[in-house]
Amino acid sequence: MLVQDIMDISSASLPILKLAGGEYHLNEAAGIVPEEGNIIVVDEKGRLLGKINRRHLFREPSVHELRSLVEPLKEVILLQENALELLDYFKDGRKKIVYVVGQDKKLCGAVSSGSRAVRMLFKIKNFAPFPNIFDAMYEAIIVIDAGGTIIYVNHAYSNIVGVPAGKILGKKMAEVEPTSMCLKVLKGHPPILNQKILIESIGVEVLANITPFYVHGKLAGVISVFRNIYETMNLSDELKRVRDIARYLHDELNAKDKQLPGAFESLVGKNRYFRQALILAATVAPTDATVMIRGESGVGKEVLAEAIHKSSPRKDFPFIKVNCAAIPESLLESELFGYEEGAFTGAKKGGMPGKFELAHKGTIFLDEVGDMSPAMQAKLLRVLQEKAIEKIGGRKTVYVDARIISATNKDLETMVVNKQFREDLYYRLNVIPIFLPPLRRRKDDLPLLADHFLKLYCDELKREKIIIASEVMNIFLEHEWPGNVRELKNVIEHAAILCSGNMITVEHLPWHLKKARADFHLPVWRKETLPELVEKLEKEVITRVLQEYGNKSSAIKALGISRRTFYLKLKKYRLEMEN
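The chain above was modelled as a monomer; its predicted structure follows.
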């Protein structure tokens, strides 16, 4: 299931301060926030900026002053991320909420630690080691435990049944669907295999597989996999293909020591979420499954698409790239499908093949597919359904055999709801979604990536080995990298060219990173001795880290000192009393 399926707090229920032009506005919920409580801050387009303490509003500050008082929020997750990612935020057991944003950064709502759905996430995590696969499936999945409690549903379940996951997670199946065959199988009825059953509460017939599962030889619950029977009749061939892919993925992903193919060498990183994405990509590469790569600009979607192609049986045939956002709407059709001679004024003699035709037997990569117009979406859907194209000005149907990999940084699910993207095309393209995390979510990979790019540029410039100063690496770790891996690569190239020695220092960095460093101010010297000045700075740093992390264990880890030293500093500077 996705985060959007279990979001239990709407944006309208959150206390919000909107900064618009030279004014600011508070919603109704903000009016009941306690004096020392926090209010969420968004811009005029509803994009999340951070939080601000309500006490700052009592003196009626200007918008400019308010912007300088906004603090960043750490508990933020994307609407389309898998819901199990929330466990990283809630694992400390503290009462909190995590704010949910779309890919456009607009605030959508929040998930609270006390919700029934979150409690079920901790229970299901052992049954879903690779949750993205369950949510990639077109079939609905529902899991109940041995006590008949619903502990998991995937995203397709909410789409088919029309009930948000958050509404039923943690409830007894006997309350939600008293006549459910899941309960009968739980009580000993033989497993249901490809059987037509009726979901009475919504009056929908489905084709279902319902089977018990066991843990350490003991009945642990029942899993049901089903889909709408009418769609099944129309798409039976596709259903078989998806099932074959799902079985293959299950077997491959259960291989603990799976080695990535050589084509993936350029995708550097050991971050858990990034590694999961690569393993999934490498697993689907030998199949003909349609893949959609999701992620912000600059995370490496095109590089991953090419790695999938080079690891597939189609590797000896063309890999054709099409940037749907870069080609004018008036030219996109001719680029994709080609044209015949005389099709329009200026058409080349003999005509021209389109990208799909050039990709025959190979792979076509449709980047920024979310920018296609509705008319082009309809034509692309026809190609996917019929595996055939018609050139502009042509009468002959040309059959093409090309694997399709698409990519986007848009929130397609919201676009589907708003009728900006065709739902049928979405499901055709989104068979296997792969989410590449932004660089700010995988900062543990920064040293590896920086060294990798630095080695590439040293080889290119025929330079001796260059190292990165620790001060520079600290700046890298503090930076948010809005341009992701592409920005880091450019920064390393910039520094490598300017560095004449064997170490990259702050002076070799681009202006925007040097400026960020300059924004850090030492305490003002008031004729103190050096030890006094050091103590002043030490106290300030410890105070800021405590405020940022909110608990001592995290602060100790961030400061890189022992627990004993940390508590001695707290006592020395009387910070225990202040906090």
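The mean pLDDT is 83.
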